[in-house]
Design brief:
It is a single chain. The protein is α/β, with parallel strands linked by helices. It contains 18 helices and 18 strands. The strands form 4 sheets. An 8-stranded parallel β-sheet has the order 9-8-7-3-2-1-11-10. Strand 8, helix 8 and strand 9 form a beta-alpha-beta unit. The protein is globular and about 75 Å long. The mean pLDDT is about 95. The structure holds 1-deoxynojirimycin (NOJ).
């Protein structure tokens, strides 16, 4: 760490998923006007940065992660003028704005792709991944795709263009063709676009699946099949596109072309499925000039088997081993980002906590304490600060997400039981994170005066921001305290991390230390009381810096109790 640690070591980021945040025009879809109405909520919470999920023009096949114009705002969300107002409104409150950068792929309606598709001779043909069918096979024949890769959104990663008889690559939906980063024109076009947004006043980027931009392409231009996957006629191509051969080169080039020489106010975070600690250390080593931090996925992959649609209970020691490894791996070089929730994950209180009425508030505040006291930059996803829970889905018609809906079609077509598929979706679908923010107890939770694009969780009458902002014991109030603590206490921001009790199945405990000052964090991640005096005697006489319950017997940790303690020196 340099003499002056970067500002984001003390910062907390809040993610806004605009579609579900606040609607201002009654069309049932959240928008920039809505965000502008809620800026004081963010300021009161005390966050330092807003990460805004995509608001660019888009056919909305993947809720804006399919961009058809990088230079504008979709009328669905508002105008560029409102975007400028948002930057100004946030900056006036001391909050920075980080945009979502989705450049592994565009929409198939982006003019670049329209032109690329228009003819094999198009000057933009090579901006995307066009390939002929497998040798000896007719276009469109089963298995004729250029590789056997399984798409993240089910089916093959290749779509046939009947006009040319060639296929294009899409790691996600067919409406999200992958850009060819091997082509220097593509890279320069992306960098120029990024510079324009920075010049406009944005403070950095969250980079969507950025470790997928380099594909492992053979000298003859071919791509490699992956090992077969169980239950589907496809293979796992990830070895060919996760952290591919040129990924560091591309990110260093981006850094030089876009960020070098700009003020220190900027923040870059790369979303990187499958990234290892060793790779993350390289990506976030400041001396290498790539990104400030990455989103890794290890801890959100511990509660399922070969796919997220096969959930199983989380084992506490797996969680400790994983977080412990990441804390240790990025202790000397690099930096962690910390999250439970985002727009792709089910709600943390339902997934890792206990959303039953008895434990919901306590488990939400306990999980938050655990996360925010780690070393790294915490991310709060909209609604997490009020303990929003998964939606009680009962029918297929209630789902909206392309990933969930495609999975259902594919799984049932391959013989899965529809009831079991639905049960897994209820637990793991991304739509759990996408129901509207619950602002108050009114019929649509204050989100819209129209019909919301996805149903509001019926629990909003009890669980809403208005009620919690007035309550000093609420999940919201607890988040405020955690965020303030990071701002005030250098041990929280910068202290070393040591995991305690790695084998214990209920109590998650660790210390943070800096210049002889130590914090001891103890969290009971279960529904029965724990003998703290027996487990960690040093905790008993320590001063309480922050807890999620009124002080009581110092020797006992109540169900879902969390305490941040400062043992006597
Ligand atoms: C990751 C994003 O977070 C997710 O929402 C999206 O569907 C995929 N990348 C594709 O852009």
């Amino acid at each position: 760490m340099p003499e002056q640690p970067p500002w984001w070591t003390r910062a907390v980021v809040y993610q806004v998923y605009p579609r579900s945040f606040q609607d201002s025009d009654g069309d049932g879809i959240g928008d920039l006007g809505g965000i502008l109405q809620r800026l004081d909520h963010l300021a009161d919470l005390g966050v330092d940065v807003v990460w805004l999920s995509p608001v660019y023009p888009s056919p909305q096949a993947d809720n804006g992660y399919d961009i058809s114009d990088y230079e504008d705002v979709d009328p669905l969300f508002g105008t560029l003028g409102q975007f400028d107002e948002l930057i100004a409104g946030l900056h006036a409150r001391g909050i920075r704005l980080v945009m979502d950068l989705v450049v592994n792929h565009t929409s198939d309606e982006h003019p670049w792709f329209v032109e690329s598709r228009s003819s094999p001779d198009s000057p933009k043909r090579d901006w995307y991944w066009w390939r002929p069918p497998r040798p000896g096979m007719a276009p469109g024949a089963p298995g004729a795709e250029p590789t056997n890769w399984h798409s993240f959104f089910s089916g093959p990663t290749w779509e046939l263009d009947p006009a040319s008889g060639e296929y294009y690559l899409h790691l996600f939906a067919a409406k999200q063709p992958d850009l060819n980063w091997e082509n220097p024109e593509v890279r320069q076009a992306v960098y120029a676009m990024m510079r324009r947004w920075l010049d406009r006043g944005v403070d950095g980027f969250r980079m969507d699946v950025i470790n997928m931009i380099s594909k492992d392409v053979a000298p003859d231009g071919s791509l490699h099949d992956g090992p077969p996957l169980p239950g589907v006629p496809y293979g796992d191509g990830s070895a060919s596109f996760l952290c591919g051969p040129r990924i560091h080169e591309f990110l260093q080039e981006m850094h030089r072309e876009v960020f070098a020489g700009r003020p220190d106010r900027l923040l870059t975070v790369g979303e990187m499925p499958g990234v290892t600690v060793e790779q993350a250390r390289l990506f976030t080593d400041p001396a290498r000039g790539e990104v400030d931090m990455v989103f890794q996925f290890e801890h959100v992959g511990l509660d399922f088997d070969e796919s997220k649609w096969r959930p199983r209970p989380l084992r506490m020691r797996d969680l400790k081993a994983s977080f412990g490894r990441w804390q240790a791996g990025l202790a000397e070089v690099g930096w962690n980002s910390l999250y439970w929730d985002n727009h792709d994950q089910p709600r943390a209180v339902s997934r890792f906590g206990d959303d039953s009425p008895r434990h919901r508030r306590d488990s939400a505040t306990c999980l938050a304490t655990l996360l925010h006291l780690h070393r790294g930059t915490p991310y709060v996803y909209q609604g997490e600060e009020i303990g929003m829970a998964n939606f009680p889905f009962t029918a297929l018609e209630q789902f909206r997400d392309v990933e969930s809906l495609n999975h259902h079609v594919q799984a049932v077509a391959h013989g899965a039981d529809a009831g079991e598929v639905l049960a897994a979706m209820r637990r793991m679908s991304r739509d759990n994170a996408r129901t509207p923010v619950q602002w108050d107890a009114s019929p649509n939770a204050g989100f819209t005066t129209g019909t919301p694009w996805i149903a509001v969780n019926p629990d909003h009458a009890e669980w809403n921001a208005q009620a919690q902002r007035a309550d000093p014991d609420s999940v919201f109030a607890h988040h405020r305290r955690l965020i303030a603590l990071r701002h005030e206490d250098p041990v929280v921001a910068l202290g070393d991390f040591t995991m305690l009790l790695p084998e214990h199945d209920e109590v998650y405990a660790f210390t943070r230390s800096l210049d002889g000052d130590t914090l001891l964090v103890v969290c009971n991640l279960g529904g029965s009381a724990q003998d703290l005096a027996g487990l960690l005697p040093e905790a008993v006489g320590a001063g309480v810096v922050l807890g999620n319950m009124p002080e009581d017997d110092p020797a006992v940790l109540r169900p879902w109790e969390a305490r941040v303690l400062r043992p006597a020196r």
